[in-house]
Amino acid sequence: MDTKHIELVPPLVEAGKSSDLVQSGHMISASFSPSNNSLALHLVPLNLTGSKTSTVAQQETVYLAGCDDVPSSERRLFIADTVVIFSMFKSMLKDAQSRDPTWLQTRQALEIIRKLSVDYVNFIKECWIHASQPISRPEPLQFSAEHYRSLYSTFSLFVVLFVPEPGYEDAPVGEELMEWLNIHFIEPSTEEGDQLSSLDYPWEDENFWSYLTRSTIRGFSKASLFFLNTLLQHPSEDLRELVKILIPLVESHPRLPQFTAERDFAYATRKWKDKVKALRVEMDRFLDESYDWWDPLSDLIGILEGRGDVIERVCEELGADWKEVCAAWGIFVDTRLRRQDLPDVVADVLETMPPDPTNLEDMMLSSLFSGHAGQVLKHASDFDLWLSAHLADIMEPLGLLDAELDFESGVTKRDEYVLAYAEYLRSDSSLWRITIAYLYSCGRVGEEQADEVLMRVPLSLNPAAIGESPIPSDTMAEVVKDISAICREHGRESVRRAVCKIASTMLVRSRDYGMAVTYSTSAEDWTGLGRVIDAVLDEYIQNGPVVFAGYASNIAPSMDEIQSSSRTHQIFAHRLMFTVRYSQMHKMRLERDYPNAALDLLGLLRDEIAPRSWWPILLCDAVEFLQYGPKLLFSFNDVTELLRKLEEISIRSSQGSGDDYLTVLIRTIKGGGEKEALERLKQVRLAIARYFARCTVGKG
């Protein structure tokens, strides 16, 4: 049984210090998620009834961990390159939805499916070759060359059996199976042939007959003829006579690719087999138990005769397995063997030569030969989730899998395997774009999971805390732009808005208020927009007018758009307008443009743009203008308006409604309360009284 090691960062308990955990009266508990491969780990008391107080600082921490290994750099490259083919396949199926329901069975559609399936095979082959190279690598291979070789052999066989060239679905399959076998399971070896060919009397070597027999089974006629010709020098005259007859037969063995019509191939095969039977009659005349060559030569002729029992026995003696028997069956026993008839042959062969149950590749291949799509996917899932997902993706449109939704799970068989692969991809958050490509192809269940992934995409690798350097807005903007495009493509508007809300919240924390307003507006999150505005106004309270004016200027460009939009709730547009105009007033004040600054301040109060809670702040700001020496900045009526606002604050506060007016001013007074706020406003009253006096003197 495999053991899975999951490392937690920071650790719940340091390595080698598990005894400290026990002494603290705790142990680690894990809860597995019912919907995916994640689990939650946390500390629990060893003795729930009487454990002593824990000294572990992280006792309240809950870790969410995944059971899947994070893909290595080379595995990520494999994943990223193959999703391109997957996306092309999905695009083809999407196009098929607008066509006739039978279009997927047309030659055009089958050509596309075969082309993309072959693309998978070719890419796996490249990965296998690359993994086989003895080169230095930045990190060890997560999946060995042997793993990719097994992927290559399995996907190749799937294409041979289930995605043939259009028009050849009903053609004999023996030649293609033998070609597949010779590519993926090379026997006999080139080295063995070179060693035998270097001998003066190769038939004296113990491997001679096994090499010759296997070369014949595999269809390597050149090698077979070479070593048959060496037997013309054999000391046995009887053998030489037989070989003289055998050589032309091997040389003239009819093979399907040599013919343009299957009828001609069948006729040539019958005539050729009649000659093989004649050789058998001739050979029986030389039956002599003293000949050490008679049995192996008889087996060789038995293979050419197409005797299945001989092929099975010889393959077993040669150390070959069921794959070789099945491939040879379509070459020698039943030369017109069809794909649909292959499972019957395989069933008989597997009774005497079963696949290796400990070898997943062998189990996958035997299931493919037997035509058991469900078993193929089950073994493929145990071998590599990538394989089961992509095989299932092709099987469904080919009609090899039931496309009906399972009543309990709500997904199809195809979706079940694709979802499992997507779950594996979620172990690496940087693969989120690829993950959602698979999830959004899996119906309602997949869409819901994809929505979760999108809403958890890290918009920044290092989100800034309050007061730290801001998150680069261009980096976040690029991610949000990608997510928005994906949401629009799949009709997930609610997800797009949720992500914009998240982005806005993060930007507020990093004090990028301009972009925060943009995202809140895009999400039509008017409550969130209010929070952004409050955060900008809070800059005034915490850091003063200079800092506030700087940040508020960043949200000013959004004001016209928000005010003109019919979707905007007017209360939030009103608050935004106050924030921008109030910052502009302070900017003019800082630039010593006091007349216009005073005019703006008065407008904020007279037009009731300023919220009541900010009236006391504006009145305190007005003191500077009331005390301005060179000239009077307010008219008599203007000052009367200031006094009216001040009186309303005083009266309502005395009636118990001070919270409606004094909360902001109180926050600017450290350790102060309503009493201190009202004391501060007395200074405003004094300034107004003196200003009235100046107005009276001026009139006099």
Automatic annotation (TrEMBL):
It comes from Lentinula lateritia. It holds the Pfam family Nucleopor_Nup85. Its main location: nucleus. Functions as a component of the nuclear pore complex (NPC). The keyword Transcription regulation does not apply. One of its GO terms (molecular function) is structural constituent of nuclear pore. The keyword Nucleus applies. It is found in: Nucleus, Nuclear pore complex. This is Nuclear pore complex protein Nup85. GO terms for cellular component: nuclear membrane; nuclear pore outer ring. GO terms for biological process: mRNA export from nucleus; positive regulation of DNA-templated transcription; protein import into nucleus. Component of the nuclear pore complex (NPC). Keywords: Membrane, mRNA transport, Nuclear pore complex, Nucleus, Protein transport, Translocation, Transport. Belongs to the nucleoporin Nup85 family.
